[in-house]
Amino acid sequence: MLDETLVVSRLAARGIVPDASQQQAIAALVKLLASNQPLTDSGAARQGVYCHGLPGRGKSLVVDTVFELADCPKRRLHFHEFLREINRRLVNAPRGDDRLGAVSKEWLDGVALLCFDEFHVHDIADAFLIGRFLDTAISLGVRIVLTSNYAPHALLSDPEFHERVLPTIEQIERGFTVIHFDGARDYRLGGEEAALPHFFAPLDSATAAELVQVFERYEGGDAREPATVPAAGRPLAARAAGAALLWADFEALCVASRSHHDYLDLAGHWHGLILDNLQTEWLAKSHTLQRFIWLVDIFYDRKRALFIASDHPIEAALSGLEGAHDLSRTLSRLAEMQSRAYRSTLDDTAGAADLSAETAA
Fold first, then answer.
1. Range of the domain at 215
2. Is residue 190 domain-resident?
3. How far apart are CA 301 and CA 95, in angstroms?
4. What is the pTM of this model?
5. Is 186 inside any structural domain?
6. Residue pLDDT, tens place only, 102-118
7. What end-to-end distance do the CA atoms of the chain give, in Å?
């Protein structure tokens, strides 16, 4: 049986002692899952938990621990991935008076517990979609857990559209237990650096040689040839494309007009990405910066490896920039992605085994 003691012990095994807000979230999540019976929107019980706060404060850490222990039909995914799935189904769904409601019911079939990581509402289309989806999920009695960098009242803060999302905000504040993760510690910072460097600067011959070594470590020398690969149905020119590792230029991936659908597609096919020739001045353009943030979010969520070569150190270049959502989360995630604690799916490939042998020697 799931209880608070079990969750705390699982966290303790990872060297984590929950702070006050994390304890509050654990209690709310355990209470949410206390009954296997579907909930109703009667007001007798909260139907969800909404965890928000600064990046790295343990939101996903706590939620993922509870999710792993939950004994019920469940699904957990990044919000970008959810939007892609729903939009794909909407394109193919038959027309009707409530096509979104019908697609939502089909998507939720058999799901008792739903967890969205990095929940957000940045545009009016998302606002309409998630509002109707949550209506449907609540009517079906699905338990819902959301993690976000935003408090409910800060969703879609653009004054031109904020009123359109107010019904969804009120629904969350009325039907969810809202918990602010306000601890001082960022769990992604301060980790020991990985054995293999992940970020390289400047863009010189030494960096070029190191990138060749990274690629050949996982793919060998035969795969290092220019290639054109598909990304969400469109061609992408790559420097090389191996079985596990893709090597492409920043300009092709983030300066060009791409979307999170492209990055989801790439992360679904490759275990790692070498992002080359990043001119940090390009990050001053808000659309380019937003694409880079999407790419980092998606590769982090899928536990993919990310190697970046830039003209100046990437973290210093990002600090202080404006013009895109969730930049603080990106900095936190980049710090973790170059630490020994971050284990990517690329680490399980043959090249990673060779690296482990070299490190041990």
1. 199-360
2. no
3. 33
4. 0.69
5. no
6. 999 999 999 999 999 88
7. 45
Instruction: For residue 94, give Cα distances in angstroms to 88, 91, 100, 104, 110.
Output: 12, 9, 10, 13, 21
**DSSP per position, 56-81:** TSSHHHHHHHHHHH--SSEEEEEHHH
Residue 193 belongs to some domain of the structure:
no
Q: Read off the CATH number of the domain in which 76 is found.
A: 3.40.50.300
Q: What is the largest CA-CA distance in the chain?
A: 66
Instruction: Return the HEC string of 209-239.
Output: HHHHHHHHHHHCCCCCCCEEEEECCEEEEEC
Residue 346 and residue 218 in contact, taking contact as beta carbons nearer than 8 Å = yes
Is residue 151 domain-shared with residue 25, that is, in the same domain? yes
Q: How far apart are CA 304 and CA 273, in angstroms?
A: 8
Q: How far is CA 113 from the centre of its chain?
A: 19
Quick one: 119 and 204 in the same domain? no
| Closest by CA position to 80, among listed 137, 129, 119 | 119
Alpha helices in the chain (DSSP H): 4-12, 20-32, 59-69, 79-92, 99-108, 124-139, 162-175, 205-219, 250, 260-269, 286-301, 314-318, 327-337, 350-360
309, 205 in Cβ contact below 8 A?
Answer: no
Query: Is-contact 76 60, C-beta < 8 A?
Result: no
Q: How many domains does the chain have?
A: 2
pLDDT tens figures, 199-253: 999 999 999 999 999 999 999 877 789 999 999 999 999 999 999 999 999 999 9
Confirm whether 236 is domain-assigned: yes
